[in-house]
Design a protein that fits this description.
Blueprint lengths: L1 H26 L16 E4 L11 H13 L2 E5 L6
Length: 84
């Protein structure tokens, strides 16, 4: 009988520990203490929205985009193909 409770206790602990670890990783993550610039290697990319495809943009809008890209060290722009 005692062995049965021992196995039950180990199983309960393992399930509780696994659930806690999964919740911790989901909400906090592995490297929660690191600032965003830690991950910035100067090779960032951005997905540009559909509003930039097939429409004319003013010089001010383009300049604003360029400044944002430079500020965030974005070197690659991904954009959707224009549907015809």
């Amino acid at each position: 009988m005692r062995k049965r409770w021992h196995i039950w206790g180990i199983t309960t602990f393992a399930v509780a520990f696994t659930a806690f670890a999964m919740i911790w990783i989901f909400f906090v993550g592995f490297d929660a203490g690191r600032p965003g610039y830690f991950y910035n290697k100067g090779t960032n990319a951005v997905w540009i929205g559909h509003e930039w495809v097939g429409t004319e943009k003013s010089d001010a809008e383009i300049q604003s985009l360029v400044e944002m890209l430079e500020k965030n060290q974005i070197i690659c722009i991904l954009m959707p193909k224009k549907l015809e």
